Every structure is written in structure tokens, then in C-alpha cells.
Amino acid sequence: MTHPPSIIEGSNNKMGEDIDDFVVRTKSKTDSIIRDYTAVASNAYKGVSVLDANGNLRSTYDILLDIAKVYEEIQAEDKKNGTNRAQALIETLAKFLPGHIVIYAKNIFNCR
Q1: Does the predicted TM-score (pTM) go above 0.85?
Q2: Sign of dihedral through CA atoms 6, 92, 108, 39?
């Protein structure tokens, strides 16, 4: 399964433009946003990264599994602080991951 940035990486750039820097910035920005939304005490406020140690996108399964482990804690902090990071996280994932995966993930997170 590919993520939108992977589609960009794999595309033939017929206009001859260098898109590598754009892809790196997009991955980094997405990683930062998801880390912010998933930063909780149990992960020392580091959040869940969508990138591996080499800066490559992790598998969708691994990303969702790590998020599922902290999702209840995110919801509890939202309730305590009057924030809505859990919903913002789902919306961010909807932009980043294929749609059917996000619906499935939301159901998993809400069932935990």
C-alpha cells in the first residue's frame, strides 16, 4: 500500500522538475503534525512517527498500531484539557492515508 508522498516519489516527472526536496518537506511536515497530535506521557511526549530511522515512510499497519496504543490517552487528555487532538489526528490521517484505512482506523480507535 502506498501513501500519497510515495505516489509523488514514484511518478515520472515529465516536466523535469526536482521534486525530491518537496517530498522530504512533505514527509517531515506530516511527521511533525502527527507527532504533535500523538504526544502523550506514555511515549514521553515524543509522539508517533510516520517515518522510520532512515526518513522513509513506515507501513500503514505499524503507524496505526502505534497510534492505537496511545489513542485512549489522547482522548483522556482531550477531555481533561478541553482539546480535540483525537479528531484532528483522524482528519490529518484522512489526508495522509487512503480513505478506507482511516475509516477502519477510527473504528478501531473508538473500540479500544
Answers
A1: no
A2: positive
